[in-house]
Amino acid sequence: MSRLTVNDEPIDYKLDPDTPLLWALRDASNLTGTKYGCGTGQCGACTVDIDGHAARSCRVPIGSIEGTYVTTIEGLSRERNHPVQLAFIAEAVPQCGFCIPGMVMAAAALLARNSDPSEELIRAQITNLCRCGVYPRVVEAIQRAGRAMRGEEVIPAGPRPGIDPADSARLVPALVPPPAR
């Protein structure tokens, strides 16, 4: 049994200690924001925070991190208002969105240690891969989040998650045919 604290909740994983943290999070804890990308630690889609450091969860056996604190994208900010999340939205970073949770987690870990990173440091530390090619916006978003963390900028909140049923195209009155007479 591997005992960890995940998103501030103590968890006893009754899994083989060699089970990658990625699968413990996704399959046993239903925390699916952590994505499976390459399985070799190269792409960074599975990045989580382990005791304040970004880690590729596909390469971390749960038995090797007993007693640690793990934060996933779901636990970064319950209200989705962490400066990195707000800056990624404000800078229009997400495209397809697959790599974004891992990038956000890597950026949050970097900014927790250094809230004023240079472009060079960001590019050296954030090695996550993105097929959409959003790298210039990622750098600007991380620097903007750092300014917010230092109190130099306020980033407006993004839209609340989800779609209000009244905003659905299926329910817009102009698009609904009138009843047959």
UniProtKB/TrEMBL annotation:
It comes from the Bacteria. This is Isoquinoline 1-oxidoreductase alpha subunit. The keyword DNA-binding does not apply. Residues 1-76 form the 2Fe-2S ferredoxin-type domain. It comes from Sphingomonas aurantiaca. One of its GO terms (molecular function) is 2 iron, 2 sulfur cluster binding. The lineage of its organism: Bacteria, Pseudomonadati, Pseudomonadota, Alphaproteobacteria, Sphingomonadales. InterPro entries: 2Fe-2S-bd, 2Fe-2S-bd_dom_sf, 2Fe-2S_ferredoxin-like_sf, 2Fe-2S_ferredoxin-type, 2Fe2S_fd_BS, Beta-grasp_dom_sf, Diverse_Oxidoreductases. Keywords: 2Fe-2S, Iron, Iron-sulfur, Metal-binding, Oxidoreductase.
